[in-house]
Amino acid sequence: CNILSHSSxxxxxxxxxxxxxxxxxxxxxxxPDPAGSLTMLTGGEACTVTITxxxxxxxxxxxxxxxxxxxxxxxxxxxxxxxxIAAAPSRQSPATLxxxxxxxxxxxxxxxxxxxxxxxWAHTTADGRVMDIATxxxxxxxxxxxAAFSDGFFRLFSFSEEHRRFRLQSEHAFHARYSTSFLLYxxxxxxxxxxxxx
Length: 198
What we know:
Elements: E1 3-4, E2 15-17, E3 25-32, E4 38-44, E5 48-58, E6 66-70, E7 74-77, E8 82-89, E9 96-102, E10 106-111, E11 116-122, E12 130-139, E13 142-149, E14 153-160, E15 165-173, E16 189-190, E17 195-196
Antiparallel strand pairs: 1-2, 3-4, 4-5, 5-6, 5-7, 8-9, 9-10, 10-11, 12-13, 13-14, 14-15, 16-17
């Protein structure tokens, strides 16, 4: 549950902040904002996404390396654990959208700046968990969201910022058991899954 740094040779401490979540941390992302600063997003078994200002500053003194400064964090609660996070700039505003999921077959979209959940999608029949998630811009106010589920399915969604809604576009049983992770490349062809992101 600690936030650790493995760059001690640069002057980072071994533990940046103890007991950060209270339970297991499952995922982390660093997101730049339009002003050029960084925000750290973490999700875990405590059913929260924690949003924390993240800054690297030169340490005082010659040869001291750099140090990480974490600001005051805010928690956004969810009805399930959060095991994967994908962030994308809004297509309509300077905001950062955070797509996430975890311990249930549910997806969420969060406005990181406002710390507000914009939309929720829940599978009404499938059982399982969201193992990984990726996103791409798909239009003036639309995002492509690809999620890997523990039932072995990849599910392709479109997310409308205007209507604040997920729409399931396609699903494909790509793995015999469950999918754990993937990468989605902008304007790339994912021929194995039968999806083409144009």
